[in-house]
Amino acid sequence: MAAGESIEKAAEKIRPDIELPGAVRWVRQRLGAVRMALLALVTLLPGQLGNEPRLGDVRKVLGTEHALMRLREIGAAHLGSMAPPFGFGARPKRRWRKRRRSQQGTGPDPPRTSR
Question: What is the mean pLDDT of each run of 10 residues along the chain (115 residues)?
Fold first, then answer.
């Protein structure tokens, strides 16, 4: 995704095989993973990657347009503890929320109690 390009345009370009809302979700998930990986590596390797966990800043510090590939080389020792798609560690467990029943179940209304 080019700098300044909207997520929607990037999603259309990267995932033309699915509808736009699904493609946008797909791109956002990957952006979140990249942001987490950048934050982890900038924190783990202070001074080597700059001070800001932003891809543009890391590209400038490394002097490359292919920062993600270079980051995998630099952070190779830490890849086992980082989650995919950046590392090789276990995927984070999904947090399922318990559904609260806000509506009554199907069927007839319960009998009224007189007061």
Answer: 72 92 90 84 84 87 87 81 72 66 70 73
